[in-house]
Amino acid sequence: MSHPVEIDPILLSKVSKPARYVGGEWNSVVKDHDAVKLTVAYCFPDVYEVAMSHLGLRILYALLNERPDVAAERVYAPWPDMEEVMRSQGYPLFSLETKTPVRDFDMVGFTLQYEMSFTNILNMLDLAGIPLFAKDRGDDMPLVAAGGPCAYNAEPLTDYIDVFFLGESEESTQVLADTIIAWKEQGKPGGKKGLLKQLSQQPGNYVPSFYEAQYDAKGDFQGLTVTEPGAPAEIEKCVVSDVEHVFFPTKPIVPNIDIVHNRAVLELFRGCSRGCRFCQAGMLYRPVREKSPEHLADLAKQIIANSGYNEISLMSLSSADYSCLPELVDPQRWQADADFLALEFV
Ligand code: SF4
Question: What is the pTM of this model?
Fold first, then answer.
């Protein structure tokens, strides 16, 4: 059984924005770890205000917490003043919901949004008391996973991460949770390597310890050689085929301090019809898949009712290209709920 980290409130009052570290926000989910089969720490390697604005982790957090057998919690990078307190006082990195040390979770999942955050990942592992190198982590340590756009260029992090997830994770995350729970219930056959072998057989999963990278004389990456029998020679990204019905959170966490994107979020579509050759996101999130304006309006009303927000971001790669935009923002669509929603059209 894990013991929560108890931060001295006097020390906490001396760091900038203590609300970054206390949790307790509206719609955050607190579960008893003894009552679930799997615990997951979703880590964003940046400060609270940036991390809380990220839609991908909002989706996965709510998706897993819908399951009664899983507890998903948030962990963000502390600001340097808080890191100094943690290191000087011996506080390990902890989750916002239950203040559980990160090293006590079953799985620690990082999102890789930009390469500049990679050093923060190593710092967070170090603060958590988790060995940086995957080869140095025993079976008593959490599974360290990573996904997001930078997972497509995973090689700089392959020494540190147990498994990368390529593509959109709503469906594969459920498979992942089921796989880890079954592995635990069966007595962890084969240890962590046994689990990684199972994961390597599932779509979108790249287990770097089962491959060797090839480089040419200039040091440019040439390809991967399979070193573990049975590991796939190629790994394909996961793509959600039915974006209209895929899970989308309608109870967003409402922060107690201002964050970068402090408003409700609607995802209009995935992919981008422009196809600019220089654009990583435009390539990664192909093909274009739109949600209907009826479904989006229904989601918007639920999100606003559950959060109290009166402002909505229409979020996609190029939202002005949404083919049903005039229908979605038509004031008549919202008239019946105008008072309740307190919406203004500007
Ligand atoms: S997201 Fe922007 S830059 Fe990227 S393909 Fe679309 S229009 Fe081009």
Answer: 0.94
